[in-house]
Prior knowledge:
Oligomer: single chain
Helix content: 55-70%
Number of helices: 8
Number of strands: 0
Largest sheet: none
Amino acid sequence: xxxxxxxxxxxxxxxxxxxxxxxxxxxxxxxxxxxxxxxxxxxxxxxxxxxxxxxxxxxxxxxxxxxxxxxxxxxxxxxxxxxxxxxxxxxxxxxxxxxxxxxxxxxxxxxxxxxxxxxxxxxxxxxxxxxxxxxxxxxxxxxxxxxxxxxxxxxxxxxxxxxxxxxxxxxx
Length: 172
């Protein structure tokens, strides 16, 4: 996908935010950014977006509405898993990103998003000193795994928003 410069700036800002946060901050900030894109996508898919406020939708409602309006069904499980993980962090102080939580999130990804996670890890590994980067995705810390997953989920929505705005080609 060819990305306009401001879209690349958004990607860089998102990745930077995730890296500077502790686990809770990383999960909550990722969720906020994903939710904002989801809302923007839904608003662009409905003829009268002003009426959405009257519906008082929460995150899961936006996920359901986006799916009902044509977002690929395979996107739903990862979006919902991201919401569940955020809720765990928001309601329980001692929540941590462990391998089980991150594996559940990874398992919820669409097959093509799993491929993107692995490909992104490969690109990162090839661009950095092998001593600093794990040998494979599974060897990354849970936080690093989460960051890659969150970035791919965010990018999948960002590409839909860019296409909707006419700033990128369809099928990206």
